[in-house]
Amino acid sequence: MPTELVLPEGSIRAEMAYDMVIEGFAKGGPWQIGVIQGPIESGKSVAAAGALYAAMCMVPKWDKGIRRSRWLISRPTYPELETSTIPTWLSWFPEDVYGKFSWSEPYTHRMKFQDVEAEVVFMSFADDKPDTLKSLRSTEWTGAWINEGQFVPRRLVMEMSDRTGRYPPSARIRDYPQASRKFLIMDMNAPQTANHWVLRMRGDVDLPDDMPDSERMAYKKPSFMKFYMQPPALIEVKDALGKHAGWKVNPKAENLENMKGDRYLNLAEGKTLDEIKRDLCNEVVEANSGAPCFPNWDRDRHSTPEEIQAVEGLPLYLGFDWGATPAMTVWQLVAGQWRGLSELVETNSLIIEFAPKCKRMISQRWPWAVTEDGPGIIAWGDPEGDWRDERTGVTSYGIMKSAAGIIVRAPASKDNPQLRLETGRRVLSEAMPDGRPRLICSRHPTRGMPRFCSAMGGGYVLKMMRVDGQEKLKAEPVKNAASHVAEAGLYVLWGGGEGRATMGRSERPPRVNVRKVAMERGERKVFRHGLGGRR
Questions:
Q1: Which end of the chain has fewer CB atoms surrounding its CB within 10 Å, N or C?
Q2: pLDDT(7) > 70
Q3: What DSSP character marks residue 519?
Q4: Quick one: pLDDT band at residue 320, thresholds 50, 70, 90?
Q5: Are strands 512-513 and 107-113 parallel, antiparallel or unpaired?
Q6: CATH, domain 299-531, list 3.40.50.10320, 3.30.70.420, 3.40.1710.10, 3.30.420.280
Q7: What does the pLDDT read at residue 6?
Q8: How many C-beta atoms surround the C-beta of residue 387 within 10 A?
Q9: Cis ω before 168 (30° cut-off from 0)
Q10: Which pLDDT score is estimated for 505?
Q11: Based on the number of CB atoms within 10 Å of its own CB, is 311 exposed (0-12), middle (13-18) or buried (19 or more)?
């Protein structure tokens, strides 16, 4: 296809009204993959349909004067294709004008108009599992459109791109090399996670410091890829104290011609603040479900998108949760305010593998804390970490000490989920004398604690129990992907004196236990101070 799509006069594309960002996306360019992100109802799907139509009109006349082509339109599930994507497509390209639509899987629209004959196939591809990729690799397309791409993994997108530019067969279009150019377009709303591959490839977030170079290669934006970002549909209005006061329509929003009056504002009704920010403000906000353990968590008040710098001279507080998904959170207590600096969360990892990573993270980012004359570290962890493994006879605490030189203590001899919850809620509700919150965390995607912030914002949920045929909440959290990092942070509050304050007891300084811990292979003694005690 040519680098910019220019259609003959009288084309249906002339009926589609475009705004600035959408027009750039729909017109195409020298890229092979075009990705547009924007609010709901911003015209993305219509623009993508128009771009596909324009592309099929520009395929060379390679078969007896016919512009013959084959296109893929994909979405994660067939019901989503049936209820949304296909109706949008047929509203612009009805069967009585463009040709019969086959409603048997895979759904196919065989289009015939002027000198164009195009086969448009609607198929569901949801993941990048081997069977899915195997099925995709047996196909050949002129181009493709991925609808609602925020739910599609990176590898599937790149594989789908590789299957475009393969029809017409190269032997039939030797005189038209531009026809074999790969072509894939994708529309999406704001992702529901700060670690989404689009954000990484687009450069919105930094890659984790410990990501291997072999994996980093996958997130380097290809030269043939172009990203488009629409402006938000709504703008948040805040009062003099910086608190949420309402919404107004963004005068720079796109598709306003079709969303006149209060239509964008009406879409905000019945939605949570996070849902509105994600769906209508085009912001990345984590999606959660269930009854949150901390309903008084305020994302704007208790967290910041910026990295929080540690204060040299004050000790680091570490919190640990064990198991197959170990987590470490890093804090400081500055003049009575808890500041969440960073986190380290692993999946399917043993403590013996996790411990050296904790040591490396601390020595690289806060080396001053663990020098011989440094302030040291105060580490608290899940009381279950003091239980001995029946086979090896070692504890998680023992592994952290021997493999990382970090001496961890339990805030109590037995875990107390209700006390943890009450302590967390109390700290979140309190303020400093100047009005600042008593707890604030960095949700910076790579140098902050985004998983902890996501957990506190709703990922960490309460258990449901059935009583007399009705479901009721239980004051005990669900063990899920969010619980580990959340509890790693709560153990710091509990052990750091907040647990005693919740129970109405006077605070006391922690008992100090200073140990010299030799590092492996005769390296410099970095972790000389283990500060801790039982409460």
A1: C
A2: no
A3: P
A4: very high
A5: unpaired
A6: 3.30.420.280
A7: 42
A8: 12
A9: yes
A10: 67
A11: middle
